[in-house]
Amino acid sequence: MAPRVRIGHNRWFNLLWLIPIGFVVLIVAVAAAKGLRNVNAVEQFITAHPGTVADGAGPTSAALPIWVGVQHFFNLFLLIFIIRSGLQILTDHPRLYWTRHSTPGREWFRIQKPVPSDPLWTAKKDSIDLPGQVGLPGIRHSIGLARWWHLGVDVLWLVNGIVFYVLMFTTGEWRRVVPTSWEVFPNAASTLVQYLSLNWPAETDVGGYNSLQLLAYFITIFIAAPLAFITGLGMSPALSTRFRRISSVLSIQAARSLHFLVLVWFLLFIVVHVALVFMTGLLRNLNHLYANNNGGGWVGFWVFAASMVLVVVGWVAATPFTFRHPRVVQRVGYALIGPAQRLFEHLDAKPGQYSEADISPYFWHNGVYPDSAEYTALQDGGFVDYRLRINGLVAQPVELDLTQLRALPHQEQITQHFCIQGWSGIAKWGGVSLQTLIDLVKPAPEAAWVVFYSLGDGSDGGIYYDAHPIEQMSYHLTMLAYDMNDEPLSFGHGAPLRLRNEIQLGFKQVKWVKGIEFVASMADVGGGYGGYNEDHEFFGYRQTI
């Protein structure tokens, strides 16, 4: 399915058309620029603004310091993993929105067909495949591993960027990429005409960039890179919950869309940047970056070639390494992102951020629907025979039917749901607080985890379950919901009971809840990693960032 952009209310533009359209526009632009070069006023403008602003503030050395070349390579090496894993994450929910509601048909970009009329179409069914060596790791439904790659390497990329900023401003190299005069804009316009006319601007002898290059570098270094970081944080459920004033304006979906547009800028910059390096004096440019000189020798080329070998090896090896050692990828990823995640994971979210006017018109279904004889019999009987079993390390194990559950103190909340795939939605939930149930069963002091078991299976077979720290059961917004938007839970959304632990992502909100068990350790439950998706798809049992 080719990527598409929505134009107007419901018209979609196939982005593959940008290839022939872009080619035609380029040809027309070149012809127009050549024609403009024959106009005296334009030639006078180019003579007055040749392309490079000579204000005395630029660098005095043509060659770049060695540290710039080293960081340039390291930045590129990290970006191949960030971009590939980012594309893999995008394809798990291949739709982008500007509102916080992920309503089908209201997305502005999609790499998928329209959502079918099937009322039980799930977000997981909606994901798409990528070629094996494009996405990382390159198979469908691998967002758990993709996130470890993406978030973990992001940390290294940010550290590299901070070091780059410090060195740039302490050595004076910032003068190469920061405009210091308004003259940069007419000179950039002049440079653009010169490039398009194929009569390119002359290269300077002191290593200064022309104004168009300078603006491109400035945007990439000081706007696009920080925006990638900021919009990445904007997609964090923990930060969205903590910084409510910001998330009320910059929704997780708007942040996701802006994050994608930053990716588009990076890809466009890389393509144009590399093309110009090759077409404006390859050896000189590579020596300028990698060999600390501005000559025409081959040293810079061979350093560049060696660095490209490392890039290719890293690109090719990443996918098979991930398949062979997924837990290594998970452990390293958590070691890198874990310290930042732990700053936010114990937030006790408060009610009141959303009202009934904020409820989403569409709330995606997800998960594997239960089809066992046990569930079918309960559903056919209107769940009259349903019993919620709460046991384990508790003083008073209980079995409660729906009538008894509804007789307990009622709790309502309007909250935003965050799915690890990327979609979100706001709903009103009604049910019973987990604190009420804790008071009822009286957990033993050694109980550290609360395990929720589903009447449904996981995607690979076997009972779906998930474990939560016991302290989160006392949070304001942790509850068992039996109503959604003032109606009893539907089959697709988890009838008769589902968990709501609002500081966690959607995969931990167990639907079709069958039983609750209090345990001392999650190591002996299931695969021992804290939940079904943690066992099978390498999710982290803490995914608050």
Automatic annotation (TrEMBL):
| A GO term, aspect molecular function | electron transfer activity
Q: Which Pfam families match?
A: Ni_hydr_CYTB, Oxidored_molyb
Keyword Transcription regulation included in the entry's annotation: no
Might you report a single GO cellular component term? plasma membrane
Q: Which residue ranges does the record assign to the Oxidoreductase molybdopterin-binding domain?
A: 385-521
Would the keyword Transmembrane helix turn up in this protein's UniProt record? yes
The entry's keywords: Cell membrane, Membrane, Transmembrane, Transmembrane helix
Q: Name one GO biological process term.
A: respiratory electron transport chain
Q: Where is the Cytochrome b561 bacterial/Ni-hydrogenase domain?
A: 66-284
The listed locations are: Cell membrane
Give TM regions.
12-33, 64-83, 148-168, 214-239, 260-279, 299-318
Mode of membrane association: Multi-pass membrane protein
Primary place of residence? membrane
Kindly provide the name given to this protein in its UniProt entry: Molybdopterin-dependent oxidoreductase
User: Per the UniProt entry, what species is this protein from, by scientific name?
Assistant: Nakamurella sp. A5-74
Organism taxonomic ancestry: Bacteria, Bacillati, Actinomycetota, Actinomycetes, Nakamurellales
